[in-house]
Amino acid sequence: SYELTxxxxxxxxxxxxxxxxxxxxALPKKYGYWYLQKSGQAPVMxxxxxxxxxxxxxxxxxxxxxxxxxxxxxxxxxxxxxGDYYCxxxxxSGYPVGAFGGGTKxxxx
Amino acid sequence: xxxxxxxxxxxxxxxxxxxxxxxxxxxxxxxxxxxWVRQAPGQxxxxxxxxxxxxxxxxxxxxxxxxxxxxxxxxxSTAYLEISSLRTEDTAVYYCARGMGLYNYGDFDSWGxxxxxTVSS
Lengths: 109, 121
Fold this sequence. Notes:
The complex is a heterodimer.
Chain A: E1 9-12, E2 18-23, E3 33-37, E4 44-47, E5 61-66, E6 69-74, E7 83-90, E8 98-100, E9 104-108
Chain B: E1 3-6, E2 10-12, E3 18-25, E4 34-39, E5 45-52, E6 57-60, E7 68-73, E8 78-83, E9 92-99, E10 108-111, E11 115-119
Parallel strand pairs in B: 2-11
Antiparallel strand pairs in B: 1-3, 3-8, 4-5, 4-9, 5-6, 7-8, 9-10, 9-11
């Protein structure tokens, strides 16, 4: 089955830039999506189609992609940005299936 | 506004079945895919699959074939997830999530609050 690889954890101080990566073989041809799950809550989409921000998501969240790696960047991370971040993409099977990455715990302190 | 409201927590014994509902409102039900996601305690998100609302055709991720069934009642804008032959390892929070369009691309723009299913003897 398709796998997306994320670092288990990232830690930054408030105001610093946090970067979370997601690696997967299908990413050169498939969009990457990013979700934030805060403790005890349902996930929320923060980036779709590699780099688009849903309404209501702060401008400090941005997405990019190069080859097999997608990157979520939080410029000037805030304490409220802490949580688990998951990437998602479809696989290359031609069938409409995909997978989440294993998740990255972002700590801002 | 778009809402996905899931049924309440369930406590089941191994071997039993459970059916979770996801009642939607605030949008045209037939214009959006409906996905299911599992999260075991302390673990990450697992995409289980999705259902095409127009064709009612379910598509399951590889690890969720056989005991898992997605269904719909379009008349009440509600999706269902049924799990049979429950195992202790099925203990998890199950989420429904709306896709932005008719087909699944991974664009889950609205989520239910989650339903905790506990399987224990």
